[in-house]
Amino acid sequence: MSKKGWFDTAGFYAALDAARQARSLNWKQVAAGSGVSASTLTRMAQGKRPDVDGLAALCAWSGLDADSFVRSQEGDRPEPEPLAMISTYLRGDRNLSPEAATALEEMIKATYERLRQKE
Fold first, then answer.
1. Higher model confidence: residue 97 or residue 77?
2. Cα dist. 65→56, 57, 78, 88, 100 in Å?
3. Which residues make beta-bridge pairs with 70?
4. Three-state secondary structure along the chain?
5. What confidence score (pLDDT) does residue 92 get?
6. pTM, to two decimals
7. CA 63, CA 117: separation in Å to the nearest integer?
8. In this predicted model, what pLDDT tens digit does every residue of 79-92 receive, in sequence order?
9. How far, in Å, CA of 32 to CA of 25, rounded?
């Protein structure tokens, strides 16, 4: 079975390098600023993918959106499901605790399932 989607590691690394250069930093400073190990950055330079936490830290440090580097065979990716987006927004809301976000998510899912129009 072939992959339907993948992460463009080389593209992400190039964009990360551009962010580094724009800030006049060296890679050691990027590692310190992002909280990612220098060895992770070295592996990325060699074409290896960072782990999920490393990717998140580098996105947070650089302002890059990881989703911009997701590629697919078809070229067009489907629109995300509304409930998936609601969950993303709730979990990203700094005004909500993780428990509160989960409680709201469960209520919205239950209501959505009850009210959505079946095809």
1. 97
2. 9, 11, 18, 14, 26
3. 7
4. CCCCEEECHHHHHHHHHHHHHHCCCCHHHHHHHHCCCHHHHHHHHCCCCCCHHHHHHHHHHHCCCHHHHEEECCCCCCCCCHHHHHHHHHHHCCCCCHHHHHHHHHHHHHHHHHHCCCC
5. 83
6. 0.68
7. 38
8. 778 888 888 888 88
9. 11
